Amino acid sequence: MKKFQLKLEYNEEKIKAIKVSLKDKDKDKELDEEIIKYLDGLYNKNVPKLLKKYIEQDFKEEDKKEDKKEEKVEESNKEEEKINGSFRNN
């Protein structure tokens, strides 16, 4: 899944206050995580089901492609380990 980097301007003092308040309430909460939760809520509330289905299908296809790439890398690493191991034993 491709990521989109969001850049926005907001009052610096307010951002600091939000970060401090989030840490006071729950040490695990981060501002980025809260913004992502909010964006997910907007997505779920506003994007029609048919469009979500289309988008999620694209996610599944991209995930399959990434899985195949990872498998190839793992296989390549195993082969390299076998080759390196046989050289070390000699």
Keywords:
mainly alpha; 90 residues; 2 domains
What does this structure look like?
With 90 residues, this protein is mainly α. It has helices at 12-25, 31-46, 49-89. It folds into two domains: 14-46, no CATH class; 49-90. The longest helix is centred in the C-terminal third of the chain and has 41 residues, at 49-89. The radius of gyration is 22 Å and the shape is flat. The mean pLDDT is 83.
Strand-and-helix sequence, N→C? HHH
The overall average pLDDT, rounded, is: 83
* Strand count: 0
The low-pLDDT segments are none
C-alpha Rg (nearest Å): 22 Å
Helix-strand makeup class: mainly alpha
The number of helical segments is 3
The biggest sheet, with number of strands, parallel, antiparallel or mixed sense and barrel status, is: none
Residues in β-strands, percent? under 5%
User: In whole angstroms, how far apart are the ends?
Assistant: 45 Å
Q: Percent of residues in helical segments?
A: over 70%
What is the 3D form? flat
Query: How many discrete domains?
Result: 2
